[in-house]
Design a protein that fits this description.
Chain lengths: 313, 278
């Protein structure tokens, strides 16, 4: 059986990628994730300058299936982070640098620094606040024209493949995907967290330090699958140029991985499952994925990629 | 998934059962919960100090911080808190019955192998080791309690009752031996044929104890602190050269720390950048 694959021309030993923001702020931790079996790793989102996170609680384990976070993008800035990419690279697996900024300039500056540090792929986290006052409260990724501008600018400044990480908190994810592809995106990853809020009835207040945040974990898997399907059906129908799609949201078993591949995803990202299973999340999903393929008689991921999409186009 | 493991990661809102003043800047807060029956010495809880008056969009409010468990019996446990910054100052305003959010027990605690134990505590580090001493009553336990001044000492009376010997050090020498807790470790180890050392305190002090134990060939364990966001092993912020302090620690064996080049040298600030330990 062969579960290797590739992403934008870069070979991966398997389709499991560590999602951005999970253990990704240090190269030494990314190496550990690589040793635990991941096919590639994404870093914590990195910006142009050192930035502190929000006050705690920043991560809430609401239930087994619901994780809320409002980290506030803590990161030491791209200059200091370059060393972490170098350390992560010694693991031998592809390293995806997640990048954010408040403007086109900042995005391209950080992306260039990450490429220089050795990142194999850049992923643009457009779920970050926009700097223009008139767009206050909106995330950059919620404005297709702004997103397109950022992608275009980053593409001009870099040579490595550029993925855009899409937010589900939009009216039409297909429209945002279109803007990214028109801007030159080499691939899309989706979804980022779903806007969420938790209230504690005893203290009668929101529980996150930032009051509001984003939801992840198994509770968002079906939402994510729908978003992924919306984008992939548009591609299959020819309404959208086809680029590789990386699925993310609530994956914690081999069957979950299979579900995203059946929808047509090239690879998947695993985040919140690390909370529940620690680093064993990767070996667990791999073993289960192989079990699934064996049972179905599949030799490669290609044998079943996109099979479920047929029902939707 | 084990429902017990799941429950440990959730914030439980608990009323403060009791408050005991240990000294001018240290108080113990007691809570009633079956977490008390699960926790091991060296493990910690995340303590959310909810600040129940709505802010006018001031997000720089008291938050959630890690605290070692300092005592635990059937259904009652305590944390022992030193007042330092915003969160702990806010907690000191709380009274019996006020709500606090507790998550845990978290992390990996001490594991005792020896018969003749030495605990070395600096400052608030005495909290975690106090719990260990209560659990290891049948062993021969010696204790070095270091504090900056006499006024900052706490648990002195309790430790005198529980331990075979208690050695107090203060920076100014106005109480006990003058100097740091680490200064007397070698002496105590030799006098009492210590076969395992447990240490919790400022990292510079712990690094010195680590070096002494290495020289003497005595196995040792250390409870470390790093800035924690999630406390749950997912954000990666508490990293120490590839270890997660909130999950693989906070207690580490000397052999593990041997591999951690940043131990005693560098920690991670709120941004994730490395800064020197003073
Ligand atoms: C595993 C562990 C066990 C601890 N046990 C105890 C204990 O039993 N008793 C006790 O009094 N203190 C303990 N501490 C330290 C305690 O967490 C800090 O004193 C507390 O966070 C101070 O918060 P503050 O807002 O009052 O002070 P601040 O002025 O905000 O901070 C003072 C110091 O505490 C550190 N700190 C602040 N927030 C955090 C955080 N989220 N995670 C880690 N460090 C933080 C800061 O880096 C700084 O060095 C422990 C820390 C760790 C990591
Ligand atoms: C604690 C935490 C931090 C995250 N930080 C980031 C981040 O910095 N950048 C980003 O693009 N996504 C971030 N995410 C989103 C994840 O990468 C992922 O898209 C999302 O959690 C859905 O996948 P999951 O259900 O497997 O966790 C974060 C998620 C969590 C839980
Ligand atoms: S504090 Fe988040 S992983 Fe340890």
């Amino acid at each position: 059986m062969d579960i290797s694959t590739s992403l934008c021309g870069i070979p991966l030993r398997n389709p499991l990628i560590l999602a951005s923001g999970i253990l990704g702020n240090k190269g030494a931790l990314l190496r550990r994730v690589a040793e635990s079996g991941a096919g590639a790793v994404a870093t914590k989102s990195v910006g142009p300058e050192p930035r502190e996170g929000y006050n705690n609680p920043t991560v809430l384990y609401v239930s087994e299936d619901i994780v809320l976070n409002a980290m506030g993008l803590p990161n030491p800035g791209c200059e200091q982070f370059a060393g972490e990419i170098e350390t992560a690279k010694t693991s031998g697996i592809p390293v995806i640098a997640s990048v954010f900024g408040r403007s086109q300039e900042e995005f391209s500056l950080v992306a260039m620094a990450m490429e220089e540090a050795g990142a194999d792929i850049v992923e643009l986290n457009v779920s970050c606040p926009h700097s223009l006052p008139r767009l206050k409260g909106l995330h950059l990724g919620q404005i297709p024209v702004e997103t397109k501008g950022v992608v275009k600018r980053v593409k001009q400044a870099t040579t490595v493949p550029v993925l855009v990480k899409l937010s589900p908190n939009v009216t039409s994810i297909v429209e945002v995907a279109r803007a990214c592809i028109e801007g030159g995106a080499d691939g899309l990853s989706l979804i980022n967290t779903v806007q969420a809020l938790e209230i504690d009835p005893l203290t009668e207040r929101p529980m996150l330090g930032n009051m509001v945040g984003g939801q992840s974990g198994p509770s968002i898997r079906c939402i994510a699958q729908r978003k992924v399907a919306d984008v992939l059906t548009a591609m299959r129908r020819g309404e959208l140029e086809a680029v590789p799609v990386v699925g993310a949201g609530g994956i914690e078993s081999g069957e979950d991985v299979a579900r995203y591949i059946l929808l047509g995803c090239q690879c998947v990202q695993i985040g919140s499952a690390v909370l529940k299973y620690g680093l064993d999340a990767f070996s667990k999903c791999l073993k289960e994925l192989e079990g699934y393929m064996k049972e179905k008689g599949y030799e490669t991921l290609e044998d079943f990629r996109g099979k479920s999409l047929e029902w939707l186009v | 998934m084990d429902s017990d493991v799941c429950a440990r990661r959730k914030i439980k809102i608990l009323p403060i059962h009791d408050i005991v003043t240990e000294n001018e800047i240290v108080r113990s807060f007691y809570f009633k919960d079956n977490l008390a029956a699960q926790v091991e010495p060296g493990q910690f809880v995340m303590v959310w100090v909810p600040h129940t008056v709505p802010p006018r969009v001031d997000f720089s409010l008291p938050d959630q911080v890690p605290m070692s468990v300092s005592r635990a019996s059937d259904r009652l446990f305590s944390i022992t808190v030193k007042r330092c910054g915003e969160t702990t100052t806010e907690l000191f305003k709380y009274e019996k019955g006020d709500y606090v959010g507790i998550t845990g027990p978290l992390g990996k605690g001490f594991s005792v192998n020896g018969r003749h134990l030495l605990c070395v505590a600096g400052g608030i580090g005495a909290a975690a080791l106090f719990f260990l001493v209560q659990r290891e009553r049948e062993k021969d336990v010696h204790f070095i309690l270091g504090a900056r001044t006499k006024k900052e000492l706490f648990f002195e009376r309790e430790l005198r009752n529980l331990c075979t010997s208690l050695c107090i050090t203060t920076d100014d020498g106005l109480c006990g031996t003058r100097g740091f807790a680490s200064d007397v470790v070698a002496d105590v180890c030799e006098t009492h044929e210590i076969d395992q050392v447990m240490c919790c305190g400022p990292e510079i002090m712990m690094y010195k104890v680590f070096s002494v134990c290495k020289r003497l060939g005595i196995p040792s364990q250390f409870s470390l602190e790093r800035y924690m966001y999630c406390g749950l092993g997912i954000c990666g912020h508490c990293s120490l050269n590839g270890f997660l302090v909130c999950k693989d620690g906070p207690v580490f064996d000397a052999q593990e720390l041997e591999k951690a080049a940043d131990f005693g040298m560098k920690k991670v600030d709120k941004t994730g950048g490395k800064v020197p330990i003073q």
